[in-house]
Design brief:
Elements (H helix, E strand, L loop, with lengths): L1 H10 L2 H34 L1 H37 L3 H36 L4 H21 L1 H11 L3 H25 L3 H25 L14 H74 L3 H28 L1 H8 L5 H14 L3 H16 L3 H22 L5 H5 L1 H28 L1
Helix pairs in contact: 1-9, 2-3, 2-7, 2-8, 2-9, 2-10, 3-4, 3-5, 3-6, 3-9, 4-5, 5-8, 6-7, 6-8, 7-8, 9-10, 9-12, 9-13, 9-14, 10-13, 11-12, 13-14, 13-16, 14-16
Length: 448
């Protein structure tokens, strides 16, 4: 398995490697997000507007609990890939083992905190009555399942590092199908409402986490569990490489909380529900971008560790070109078919929400003109173990420029909030371009 993986990353032609790794990666990531989209459809169409708003209020806190675990999973994947490029297998196995243990322990702590603080957090958001009750219930179900669900994303990264690209894709497809089946059973047949929706997604993730562990437990994977040696240098490197992803998750979700508070004050529950539609539309596009970038990180990191900088440059070009193409398609679809897209998540009888969502979607779609460039640049820097550059781009993308644009676009009211991210990504793209030019010069010097 080691030889096959090394050959895949080191000798496969760049374009062929891109399609070999990226296509299954995109399919896998899209499969993982399909459930979220289907869940939004079910909640919006069958359970009701209060449940839709409650789920959107609770979701940022759910993602925040995943942020620490994701930081460890992604942060450990980078040094593991680079270590394999340097043929240091023992070091890679130790990072893998320590990271899995850290993720499990972190999930227990965050789960307990989220369960205990759920009512207070939801009230602080401004929710009341039925919406507050539903949001608290949704949050607590996620908290109870946290130790068994947060590992699934890290295991997906580890499977791809080991060359199980198709296996990762198949597992993600299975997880999505399982979650949808459970959703139908719990919501349609058992009439469990929003609680059934939360149980469906968490049970599906927990089952697939256990399945993903099998090749590592049985010793069939490139990475193997060893006696853990927790070293400060290992933890420091993992945190440094995972910080961009962590900050992107945490800052993005914190900004979503700010958006929800502003939306409630400016437009009430109707505006929050419309924002939910925008987030689900974003979930249709983000898996493609994330899948393209994330699936190429092991190969880019491997070649960076091996000193093959020309190959690193070729692989990076494939990623930037593909993310640009996906983003352009997304803009065109949302600009020309906003009503049809919004109708998927909003019952046509709810004319007020449908009209607001359609208008918001046209403005929101402009973000994809510029989002892809900063996102791909951040992923590239993360892959080559340059956390400072990746972290800088993350902070600018997720919180600095969005907060600045809240103030700049405040006179526009709700329209300013719909345009916030589109306006924020323009300066991010400029900063990323300047940084990449400097990195490109350094790579030329190394190649000489």
């Amino acid at each position: 398995m080691t030889k096959d993986t090394d050959l895949l990353y080191a000798q496969t032609p760049p374009v062929k490697l891109f399609f070999t790794a990226a296509v299954p990666g995109v399919i896998g990531m899209f499969a993982m997000s399909v459930y979220n989209i289907v869940e939004g459809i079910f909640v919006g169409q069958f359970i009701g507007g209060d449940a839709f708003a409650a789920m959107n209020l609770a979701m940022p806190f759910v993602f925040i609990t995943f942020a620490l675990s994701d930081m460890i999973g992604v942060g450990s994947s980078v040094p593991i890939s680079i270590a394999h490029g340097r043929q240091d297998k023992q070091y890679a196995n130790n990072i893998f083992t320590c990271s899995v243990l850290l993720i499990f322990l972190t999930a227990i702590v965050t789960g307990v905190l989220m369960f205990t603080l759920a009512p207070t957090l939801i009230r602080l958001m401004g929710a009341e009555d039925e919406v507050a009750r539903l949001a608290t219930l949704y949050l607590r179900i996620n908290a109870m399942m946290n130790p068994l669900t947060t590992l699934v994303f890290a295991m997906d990264n580890y499977l791809r590092i080991c060359g199980f690209v198709r296996g990762s894709m198949i597992l993600n497809l299975f997880m999505s199908a399982l979650q949808i089946c459970l959703l139908v059973v719990f919501v349609v047949f058992l009439d469990m409402g929003l609680a059934g929706s939360a149980l469906a997604i968490n049970l599906g993730m927990a089952i697939c986490t256990l399945i993903a562990m099998i090749p590592f437990i049985k010793g069939r994977a490139l990475l193997r569990f060893t006696k853990p040696r927790f070293e400060f240098s290992v933890l420091k490197k993992t945190v440094a490489c995972g910080s961009p992803t962590f900050l992107n998750n945490i800052a993005g979700r914190l900004f979503s909380l700010v958006m929800n508070v502003l939306l409630i004050r400016m437009g009430g529950t109707l505006a929050v529900s419309a924002f939910s539609v925008l987030m689900y539309c974003s979930d249709l596009v983000q898996p493609f971008l994330y899948g393209l970038c994330d699936s190429m990180q092991p190969s880019i990191g491997f070649n960076w560790g091996a000193g093959n900088y020309k190959r690193v440059k070729s692989l990076a070009k494939c990623v930037f070109a593909a993310t640009a193409a996906v983003s352009l398609v997304a803009v065109l679809l949302m600009l020309f078919f906003p009503l049809q897209i919004a109708s998927v998540f909003v019952n046509r009888s709810d004319t007020a929400l449908l009209e607001l969502s359609t208008h918001a979607l046209r403005l929101f779609s402009l973000e994809f003109f510029f989002w892809w460039f900063g996102y791909a640049a951040q992923s590239f820097y993360n892959a080559i173990e340059k956390p400072r550059q990746a972290t800088a781009l993350t902070l600018l993308t997720a919180i600095v420029f969005p907060l600045v644009m809240v103030a700049v676009l405040w006179p526009m009211g709700l329209d300013g909030l719909w345009l916030n991210q589109a306006a924020s990504y323009v300066p991010v793209a400029i900063v990323a371009f300047v940084m990449l030019r400097k990195t490109q010069k350094n790579m030329r010097s190394r190649m000489k």
